[in-house]
Amino acid sequence: MLDSKLLEILRCPETRQNLVPASSDLLGKLNQQISQGTLNNRSGRSVNTPLVQGLVSADGQRLYPVVDDIPVMLIDESILLNP
């Protein structure tokens, strides 16, 4: 679980919007796509590792994965949620 103080200062690097933790429902849907081999990140690479945590931009359009409690705040590693 990410520290609440860290969440207060993190922003989407693309839009500068606030970020909120991804819901378990969203993570479940994305993990289903990962298991089917149909989920790609913004760079077009297939996402192969199940998502345990993620941060979603305030507009609900982008998810930034959190790996080992470290947010991966790279645009190319983000996942578009409504492409």
Give a written overview of the molecule:
With 83 residues, the protein is an alpha+beta fold. The chain has one domain (4-80). Helices cover 23% and strands 22% of the residues. The chain contains 2 helices and 5 strands, in the order αβαββββ. Strands 1, 2, 3, 4 and 5 form a 5-stranded antiparallel sheet that branches. A hairpin with a 4-residue loop joins β2 (53-57) and β3 (62-67). The chain is globular and about 35 Å long. The termini are far apart. 18% of the residues are buried.
Helix and strand layout, with pairings?
Blueprint: H1 4-9, E1 19-21, H2 24-36, E2 53-57, E3 62-67, E4 70-71, E5 79-80
Antiparallel strand pairs: 1-2, 2-3, 3-4, 3-5
What's the domain count? 1
Assembly type = single chain
Question: What are the segments in which pLDDT stays under 50 over at least 5 consecutive residues?
Answer: none
The number of helical runs is 2
The assigned structural class equals alpha+beta
Strand fraction: 15-25%
Proportion of helical residues: 10-25%
Short description:
With 83 residues, the protein is of the alpha+beta class. Helices cover 23% and strands 22% of the residues. The protein has helices spanning 4-9, 24-36, and strands at 19-21, 53-57, 62-67, 70-71, 79-80.
Attribute tags:
globular, five-stranded antiparallel sheet, alpha+beta, 83 residues
